[in-house]
Amino acid sequence: MKRLGKWRLLPLLAVVALLAGCGEPFLSALQPAGEVAQIQYDLMVLSTAIMVGVIVVVAIIFILVMVRFRRKSEDEIPKQVEGSHTLEIIWTVIPILLLVVLAVPTVSATFKLADVSEMDQKAEEGESEALIVNVRANLYWWEFEYPNEEIVTSQDLIVPTGEKVYFNLKASDVKHSFWIPPVGGKMDTNTDNVNKFWLEFDQTKADEAGGIFYGKCAELCGPSHALMDFKVKALPRAEFDQWVADMQNVTEPVQAETATAQAGQEVFNNSCIGCHAVTPANTTPEQARMGPNLTDFGNRTLVAGILENNEENIKNWLKDPEEYKPGNKMTGKYNLSDEEIDAVTQYLMGLKVQE
Amino acid sequence: MSTYAQKKGVGAVIWDYLTTVDHKKIAILYLIAGGFFFILGGLEAMVIRIQLAIPDNNFVSAGFYNEVLTMHGTTMIFLAAMPLLFAFMNAIVPLQIGARDVAFPFLNSLGFWLFFFGGVFLNLSWFLGGAPDAGWTSYASLSLASEGHGIDFYALGLQISGAGTLIAGINFLVTIINMRAPGMTYMRMPLFTWTTFVASALILFAFPALTVGLFFMMFDRLFGSNFFDHTMGGNTVIWEHLFWIFGHPEVYILVLPAFGIFSDIISTFSRKRLFGYSSMVFATVLIGFLGFMVWAHHMFTTGLGPIANAIFAVATMAIAVPTGIKIFNWLFTMWGGSIKFTTPMMYAVAFVPSFVAGGVTGVMLAVAAADYQYHDTYFVVAHFHYVIIGGVVLSLLAGTHYYWPKMFGTMLDEFLGKITFWLFLIGFHLTFFIQHFLGLMGMPRRIFTFLPNQGLEIGNLVSTIGAFFMAVAVIVLLWNIVITSVKNVKVGNDPWGDGRTLEWAISSPPPFYNFKQLPLVRGLDAYWIEKMEGKKEMTPAEPLGDIHMPNSSFIPFMISLGLFIAAFGAMYRVDYAWGLPVLVVGMAITLLSMLVRSIKDDHGFHIHKEDLIDDKDKGGKA
């Protein structure tokens, strides 16, 4: 049992060492890349430190007990002790004090992270300076609408760094949860109401992560819950503004250039456009936006949030989406021949608002 | 009643168990049924870990995986952990308080059969079109969208087995309040009885919330109501509240009896009175009370707002205080004691640091703002497995070894027991410790696969290897049970030699009427007090007299069977014309059985004084 006691201590030391940063910088909550994640990380470190302290005390008593009080003879009858008021007061009061130390920053951070008053000022004074993104979670894809900029995009969330970005969150079918681990904790997208919170994205950390953070759905939503990923491109404000301007410039669907792509566009207009828009304007009602907006599809990092964006994968996806995302809402909604799929692929690859 | 000792045919034994109202036999029924579901849930866990051993694995499909994860959680909580605890409560609590049986033996049997038929109904979903797939929490928007009958099996199965649990809880409350032996005051009750008492009170108040939630769910799915349909004025967040108003106390319903088992084991094998007994009792009651004040900490990310989140965060942290009191009291019970490392004691000793690890992550999760990161990730998975396995399952394994001689009259093998212990403990920490980090590294829970190159490979592989250790440990335990049952070496009243409480003052297994004469309790650890004064038996509190016993009854089985049939009718009514008549027939069976019970006089029978004396002359022990 002595070994057990020592063995229990090892992982705890490992906690401290490992908390310092593990996992991949684009996915790990332990490598905070923004103010919110930093606040949360600091709370994790504080609570872990207190808890390791508690564990050390327990471990010391535990090891002493295991070593000193083994039965030596079958005849020994130890003294029957009822208890000790002093000891009991000590182990009641000290934990209370420790919890107070933890509770104060907890409450303060909870209110700070929920402060979205800047969002609401907009309603009174017209346009607000704050950047607002409406997130709509759907069975296995994400829509990002920028109400002030009047553009809609999907799957790749584009945000400026170094400022607070405010989010309105909701789901259109079942409950999901919006989570970018390195940037901040999650918030559920409910079907009943709109949830609000803010995040801040750090430029340096974004560069370390390769310009892209991974976003995840964190609430079980069906077979492809595990595959409901999205990507976050965090850009300097100027680049972000440029992207917004380029998006806003697309008022008509972009005409395809090559002959195959033009054929693909025709197929697209017959078979796909009912669900997938190729203009960024947010004039269509939500209910009609049944699939991801594809305006900037050629620039997306991934196909369907999970496959590398190349010709082969687009074709594979179009041929049998069920194989890649079981239970998705696209399977069976269209019937395309292999030639048509090739043509649509050419067309989709050309959909870029920026080169 | 010398029939008790006679040899019986297989058919007669089965009939005996189908109709029994004896708490000791019902305990065995709970142990067998709970053990069966525990193995089933364990197999489901192995499917989960095999699927997640490597990235992009296709051992099972996405849809099937969701069914497996749902059934793993539901089975382990409702059909394994709780029934196994009920097994020990039934076997031990009436003996610990020196009672003849539980207060309502008939209801005790009914509670078991309701649980059993509910559990069977739920698991038949595997063969009838697919199991539920919305997680054991079955959040409303997803569960209403779920196709097929999986969720109907969940709602109806849990409704039936939940009724059984509620009945069992009420029964223990009444038993402990009314049936204590002379001298057994509240503050002399062993900790296992105390924790059973508080857990039963929690069942009484928590299960109605689940019942209401499940009724809403059932009516939404089967009869077209709209409690949770937000387009029709319903609200899905209400389900979350109802579920967790039940679900959080449920954690304490499970873990408090586990605390009780460990308190008794630690005190027994340290040969010391429990340190700070009254503060242990106080802490138990306080945990039970606070357990109802913290449910929304499961919903920090639902969007309840900062005021609710802050209040529930602080309330949750408060629970750490009474739990800490318990940990230190256990440590100081051992301090200065004379510790004998039997198999049950090894579990109890390993429980202390394991549960502390689960407890401290609980406090970390209570930090609402940081919980936004932990919530619904493998950090939470790691946390609750530390609490449930490190607390409840270790106590069940400890209890199995500790109470086995009392229930079956023979000891489990200590050497094999220790092999099970080490394999299980190592496997448990190997599986779950690393999951804390997986969660922090960005792995959400309930995902059927993960993609390569996200830094999650090694952790998941280690976790899967650990799971195999636990599986082997359980196989060794089963082997242990088989070989010791075959050898069947009979043991006396107090096979551990260190027994302190009343259950060790009676033969193993006890006669069906328990104590021939109610024992006189002269203090905490009643049997220990007598032993220290050199006595072998408890002093009787009454002269030998006739003992009034209840008759066996087949009615509980029929009542439960009727509901089981009715549940199929209610479910298939939507698809087939025969559904409605089956629903009516099933309800009729239940109601008629209840009617028979109500109008038929059943006064039980008496064991006559002369027969009891007769027993003693033959060498039987009371």
TrEMBL record, chain A:
Q: Which InterPro entries match?
A: CcO_II, CcO_II-like_C, Copper_CuA, Cupredoxin, CuRO_CcO_Caa3_II, Cyt_c-like_dom, Cyt_c-like_dom_sf, Cyt_c_oxidase_su2
> What residue ranges carry the coiled-coil annotation?
none
Q: Taking every annotated instance into account, which residue ranges of this chain make up the domain Cytochrome c?
A: 259-352
**Membrane topology label:** Multi-pass membrane protein
Could you tell me which residue ranges the Cytochrome oxidase subunit II transmembrane region profile domain spans? 21-117
| Molecular function terms from GO | copper ion binding; cytochrome-c oxidase activity; heme binding; oxidoreductase activity
EC annotation? 7.1.1.9
- Cofactor dependence: heme c; Cu cation
Q: How is the cofactor bound?
A: Binds a copper A center.
Reactions this protein catalyses: 4 Fe(II)-[cytochrome c] + O2 + 8 H(+)(in) = 4 Fe(III)-[cytochrome c] + 2 H2O + 4 H(+)(out)
Query: Cytochrome oxidase subunit II copper A binding domain location, by residue?
Result: 128-246
Instruction: Enumerate the UniProt keywords alphabetically.
Output: Cell membrane, Copper, Electron transport, Heme, Iron, Membrane, Metal-binding, Respiratory chain, Signal, Translocase, Transmembrane, Transmembrane helix, Transport
**Location(s), subcellular:** Cell membrane
* Record-annotated membrane-spanning stretches: 45-69, 89-111
Question: Per the annotation, which location comes first and is thus the protein's main one?
Answer: membrane
| SUPFAM superfamilies per UniProt | Cupredoxins, Cytochrome c, Cytochrome c oxidase subunit II-like, transmembrane region
Sorted alphabetically, the Gene Ontology cellular component annotations on this record are: plasma membrane
- State the similarity comment: Belongs to the cytochrome c oxidase subunit 2 family.
Q: What task does this protein carry out?
A: Subunits I and II form the functional core of the enzyme complex. Electrons originating in cytochrome c are transferred via heme a and Cu(A) to the binuclear center formed by heme a3 and Cu(B).
Specify the protein name: Cytochrome c oxidase subunit 2
Q: Which organism is it from?
A: Mesobacillus persicus
UniProtKB/TrEMBL annotation, chain B:
Q: GO terms for biological process?
A: electron transport coupled proton transport; oxidative phosphorylation; respiratory electron transport chain
The task this protein performs is described as: Cytochrome c oxidase is the component of the respiratory chain that catalyzes the reduction of oxygen to water. Subunits 1-3 form the functional core of the enzyme complex. Co I is the catalytic subunit of the enzyme. Electrons originating in cytochrome c are transferred via the copper A center of subunit 2 and heme a of subunit 1 to the bimetallic center formed by heme a3 and copper B. This cytochrome c oxidase shows proton pump activity across the membrane in addition to the electron transfer.
Q: Give the record's pathway.
A: Energy metabolism; oxidative phosphorylation
Question: What is its membrane topology?
Answer: Multi-pass membrane protein
| Reactions mediated catalytically | 4 Fe(II)-[cytochrome c] + O2 + 8 H(+)(in) = 4 Fe(III)-[cytochrome c] + 2 H2O + 4 H(+)(out)
- In short, the EC number is 7.1.1.9
User: One MF term from GO for this chain?
Assistant: metal ion binding
Q: Which family does it belong to?
A: Belongs to the heme-copper respiratory oxidase family.
Gene Ontology cellular-component terms listed = plasma membrane
Task: Establish whether keyword Nucleotide-binding is in the entry.
Answer: no
Q: Which cofactors are required for activity?
A: Cu(2+); heme
Q: Spell out the protein name for this chain.
A: Cytochrome c oxidase subunit 1
Where it sits in the cell: the answer is: Cell membrane
Q: Which UniProt keywords apply?
A: Cell membrane, Copper, Electron transport, Heme, Iron, Membrane, Metal-binding, Respiratory chain, Translocase, Transmembrane, Transmembrane helix, Transport
Q: Which residues form the signal peptide?
A: none
Q: Which residues form the Cytochrome oxidase subunit I profile domain?
A: 9-522
**Which Pfam families would you find in this protein's record?**
COX1
